[in-house]
Design goal:
Length: about 130
């Protein structure tokens, strides 16, 4: 009689375990599908953002090239005007000697102290913390 109770309990336990495993696997599969769909959506958004960013940089490069060309035309016109209005003067030599590539920019940095994330008086904080 005891063998029959053990056998019935074993069969009931196996059936209950199978149901639990089935529903747990189904729940995990649903979560996995959801995460996979979110991943695909994020990949699409990332690709769109990368395309948008590359288009932005291409547009910026085109603008900078146009600015450079306009600057060259302006410089050429200034030199032509200087030759026309100021012939045979020392200013003309100064204008021709000016070259943008030879100019240097001095990066003068001010001595700035970085802000601290903590108080400079740490002894009092440790003592106050120990007293509490």
């Amino acid at each position: 009689m005891i063998w029959i109770c053990i056998l019935v309990s074993l069969i009931i336990g196996i059936i209950i375990g199978a149901f639990i495993m089935y529903y747990k696997a189904r729940y995990l599969l649903h979560n996995q599908k959801t995460l996979y769909n979110e991943l695909q959506d994020k990949k699409v958004k990332l690709n769109e953002y990368q395309k948008e960013l590359s288009n932005h940089f291409i547009y910026t490069i085109k603008l900078l090239n146009k600015i450079e060309d306009d600057y060259r035309h302006l410089s050429h016109n200034v030199k032509k005007s200087a030759n026309f209005f100021l012939p045979n003067t020392h200013i003309q030599d100064d204008i021709h000697a000016f070259n943008t590539k030879k100019t240097t920019i001095k990066n003068e940095q001010l001595p700035i102290a970085a802000p601290l994330d903590y108080s400079s008086n740490t002894e009092n904080t440790i003592k106050n913390h120990d007293n509490e």
